[in-house]
Design goal:
alpha/beta; Rossmann fold; 5-stranded mixed sheet; globular
Length: 159
């Protein structure tokens, strides 16, 4: 699954020409994928637990689907309750607060994020796409959960 890959792009500043205007620092991190049912929900759960004070966290998808119960289960195994999460579209996210977007798509076409922000790409396989027994599917969710935990821990140290 590879290491942490961060592509730094500056966030938008305040409008030019405004006398005395201070740039508003965007402090929220958005985890973005297609369905917002598994990877991005697990990422949001970890980030909420690990984010420094003042850093907002959200997740969204281009075609939101129901929260995957296996994502809820594997996160509960590590003491994080995401059962109250719901899949969201970008329309429900305050985009002007987002400073960093983490794209989690691997084989799918990732959604487009309309604002100019720092972009990070973590192409993780979608555990919800794994076919097989319950144990095989749980193993796929746990692998992605472990990878997300490591990457999000490193990311939060940079914020």
């Amino acid at each position: 699954m590879g290491g942490l890959k961060i592509v730094r792009k500056p966030a938008l500043r305040t409008r030019a020409g405004k006398a005395g205007a201070k740039p508003r620092r965007r402090r929220a991190v958005l985890f973005l994928c297609v369905a917002n049912s598994a990877r991005s929900q697990m990422a949001e759960g970890f980030a909420r637990r690990l984010a420094p004070r003042g850093v907002g966290v959200a997740s969204a998808g281009s075609r939101p689907d129901a929260l995957n119960p296996l994502a809820v289960e594997v996160m509960a195994e590590v003491g994080i309750d995401i059962s109250g999460h719901a899949a969201k579209t970008l329309d429900s996210i305050p985009l002007d607060e987002i400073g960093t977007v983490v794209f989690l798509c691997a084989d799918e076409i990732c959604p487009v994020f309309p604002a100019r922000v720092e972009r990070i790409r973590w192409p993780l396989p979608d555990p919800a796409a794994v076919k097989g027994s319950r144990d095989q599917r749980l193993r796929a969710f746990r692998r992605v959960r472990t990878e997300l935990h490591q990457r999000i821990g490193a990311l939060m140290e940079l914020l």
